[in-house]
Structure formats: C-alpha cells, structure tokens
Design brief:
The structure is a single chain. By secondary structure, this protein is of the alpha+beta class. The chain has a domain of 91 residues. The protein has 6 helices and 6 strands. A two-stranded antiparallel ribbon has the order 1-6. It binds iron/sulfur cluster (SF4) (2 copies). One iron/sulfur cluster binds next to loops.
C-alpha cells in the first residue's frame, strides 16, 4: 500500500511538472468570500492596465470588461471591482454564465504576475518541488564547483 502510494505520488508529480508544466498543486475550494471579485487588476499583453483610455478600448473586445468598474489606482495599475458581485450575499449574480477567466480562477499564473491569494481564499497553492529539495540541489551543484564554498548558519 505504501509503495502504491509512493508510486501514485511520483506519477502525479511527473504529470504536473512535465506534462502540465506546473510548479504548484492547487488544493481547497471556493468558500464564496467574493474577495477576488472586488480587487482586480487586468492584464493586457505583458502589462497590467494602468490607464483608463486603454481599458475603454478593451471593453469593446470582451463583454467581461463591461462589468468592471474602476475603484482605485495604485503602483501596480488600475484596480477594478466587478459589478456582478452581489454586495449583500457576496455571490456572483451571473454564476452560471460567468466568464472562463472566473471559472478557472485561481491559476498559478497569478503568482507570475506578482499577485497573491486573499487571506480569506479557500484555495491553497503548494510548491510541487518543496523549497528544501531545491535548496539541497543547489547545495550539491555548488559543492561540485571548485573554489566555491557555502556557509550555513
Ligand atoms: S463575473 Fe462573477 S465570478 Fe467573475 S469577477 Fe464578476 S462577480 Fe466574480
Ligand atoms: S477569493 Fe478564493 S474563496 Fe474567495 S471567492 Fe475568490 S476563489 Fe472563492
């Protein structure tokens, strides 16, 4: 049983790392806190949208943007709130026909963009390769380098 469990773990890890090219396992589930629908950054191309003129152009390209309202602007970019979020129930008013981007949330790509999950989010991301394993590999490769030393306190 233990061997089977290990084999399944190794296969799962291989599938995520090599086939899906993921770096994190996602676990948990949505608890409908609504946090991800009221502080939203919008990425277009490689950049987060910073000016309203560009955003108004995007509105003509996808109906999802029509439902977003600018509520702030910070050092990252414009901050939006989705008008489909019911302020009382904290639930999505168009849940059954919400956009694909909402159905897939949260993806690990949000980390690449420098975003984070809200503290109330029911999802959790765990690195597939634990940090200790990465650190050990780096130590091993460095110990092979001549003239290179590592000091660990
Ligand atoms: S459409 Fe619904 S799920 Fe998507 S951001 Fe708006 S409120 Fe949230
Ligand atoms: S922040 Fe997380 S738990 Fe809250 S609504 Fe969004 S996906 Fe669901």
């Amino acid at each position: 049983m233990n061997l089977l469990h290990k084999l399944f773990g190794a296969l799962k890890r291989f599938y995520y790392l090599k086939i899906l090219r993921r770096k994190y396992y996602r676990s948990g589930k949505c608890n409908c806190c609504g946090c991800c629908c009221e502080k939203i950054y919008v990425k277009h191309g490689k950049n987060i949208i910073y000016d309203e003129e560009l955003f108004n152009k995007l509105k003509t390209m996808h109906s999802f943007y029509d439902d977003l309202e600018v509520i702030d602007k910070d050092e990252t970019g414009l901050v939006f709130r989705c008008n489909n979020l019911d302020p009382i129930t904290r639930k999505c008013k168009i849940h059954r026909r919400r956009a694909k981007i909402c159905r897939n949330y949260p993806q690990e790509e949000i980390f690449m963009m420098g975003a984070q999950l809200s503290d109330d989010c029911g999802y959790k991301f765990t690195p597939i390769v634990p940090f200790s394993e990465v650190f050990e590999k780096v130590l091993k490769s460095k110990s092979k380098d001549s003239g290179c030393r590592f000091f660990i306190e």
